[in-house]
Amino acid sequence: MTTEIRRLIRVRTEKGAEFKRDGFGKKKQLSDSWRKPRGQHNKQREQKKAKGALPKPGFGSPLAVRGMHPSGFFEVLAFTLKDLEGLDPATQAVRISATIGTRKRIVLQEKAISSGLKVLNARVMKKPGVTEEEPETTSESAKDAAAEKTIVAKEPAEKPKKGKEPKKPAKSAPAAAPEPANKPAKKPVEEKAEEKAGKSKAKEPAKSTKKPVKPQAKEVPEPEETKPKADTKSKPKAKKATAAEVKKNE
Q: Cα separation of 33 and 22, whole Å?
């Protein structure tokens, strides 16, 4: 890519013209794709301030770089191997179609690179049925160090034997402070009084704080009052009056 083309691409980007339709930010269903305003009182059509610019001559990019990729090549969309024939590697670059599968993409990409063409959407792909062998990154010294670590981890730590434990030196007791010579001796009367007080305290039993529990009297069930049975025999049964007696009473 020559210096003149780089300069023209820089001019194209510095203009940065973006034309967006009126009201695209007010409603969600409106996209920012350009639509010419045709309303009688439309502020964008009347070119009011901050309503957006209208496409006019002067916003276009230079003819030499119009439609050119930023890398300095003109794109060519490739679907088959025939599309790669007759292309100029100095000015044209290949873009492989997204609808092509992996098997055909590998063939197209290898053919384009071998012919010296630039692939704009090149991918790193593995060939089907081929497995890559992992390279040996660890050296012999690293392997030896790892083996030594495993051996050290397996060996148990030696425990000290009970019988051969070194004896610790016995701590010397601190020397008792000498009693002062001028200490007054206790009187025999005071010693006797202290002995009597200690004996009296030993003889006195410890007072228990718990209160004595009173024995609860057992409830005796009261005998049920027996009601006298009514004498059924004392009452005479009423006799039915015969027909002759009824006539007499009438």
A: 10
